[in-house]
Amino acid sequence: MHSNLIVAxxxxxxxxxxxxxxxAFDETDMPHRMGTRRRQLFSFRGLYFHLxxxxxxxxxxLIEEAKTDPxxxxxxxxxxxxxxxxxxxxWRSPADAMAKRFYSWESA
Length: 108
Fold this sequence. Notes:
Dimeric_a/b-barrel; Polyketide_synth_cyclase; Polyketide_synth_cyclase_sf; TcmI family type II polyketide cyclase; globular
């Protein structure tokens, strides 16, 4: 399984709105189209963590293909009032918000 972890900033009071946006998005076929197996959202002291697990290692490619879908574009726009870049000075694309895995373990 492949995972992405996006790190950004979010006012914790926005968690219900953000969860509602993703709930509506995840009820469509978009997660399947992107190969998403599981999505989890976390907040901690003004930080936002978006963990997305994929069935295969091509999740990044599938997301790139989905970026032109009006539903993907809409949720990206709808999230802007709630989610902001961790470091706006260096943010150019979502890839700039991806945490880098440096250790992994799985049960046999």
